[in-house]
Amino acid sequence: MIIELKKFGAILISRPAGREAFNAIRPELKRGEAVQVDFRGVLAVTPSWVDEFLLLLIDYVGDNVELWPTDNTSALATFRVLAEAKQEPVASLARRYLESEKFTPLDTKLSNGVNVRFVNNEANREEIKKERKT
């Protein structure tokens, strides 16, 4: 099953809203089924929303949850926060996603806050190579 998060809104914030989103999708889920989470169409998402949603999702369907590739910087930054700050099983899912070769963080710099650009290697590999040479 594919869960398109955009149906819950373009800006996903707060733990209660993450719980509400899970409760809305739960009747469509089957225990043990494979689930893919799609962040396309989401403008911003917070660690609290993702943590709550994924924790409930993993608890319900098990470890068969996959985060689909995304270039959404808000989602990618959230995965980094969750991978470092949270306990299992959400941290494990976030780490697995970040360690995949689908995306590489580039140009990470701190300057009056965090400015991180994530680039999709599959779609932009040649562009990245050219950028690095110049």
Characteristic terms for this protein:
single chain; 134 residues; alpha/beta; 7 strands; globular; DUF4325 domain-containing protein
By secondary-structure content and strand pairing, the structural class works out as alpha/beta
Strand content: 15-25%
Number of helices: 5
Our Rg estimate from Cα atoms comes to 15 Å
Q: What is the domain total for the residues?
A: 1
Helix coverage percent: 40-55%
**Mass-distribution shape:** globular
List how many beta strands DSSP finds.
7
Give the topology string: H per helix, E per strand.
Answer: EEHEEHEHHEEH
Protein name: DUF4325 domain-containing protein
Organism: Candidatus Curtissbacteria bacterium RIFCSPHIGHO2_01_FULL_40_12
What's this, in brief?
46% of the residues lie in helices and 22% in strands.
Topology:
Layout: E1 2-4, E2 11-12, H1 15-25, E3 35-38, E4 44-45, H2 47-61, E5 65-67, H3 73-85, H4 90-99, E6 103-110, E7 114-120, H5 121-133
Parallel strand pairs: 1-3, 2-4, 3-5
Antiparallel strand pairs: 6-7
Helix pairs in contact: 1-2, 3-4
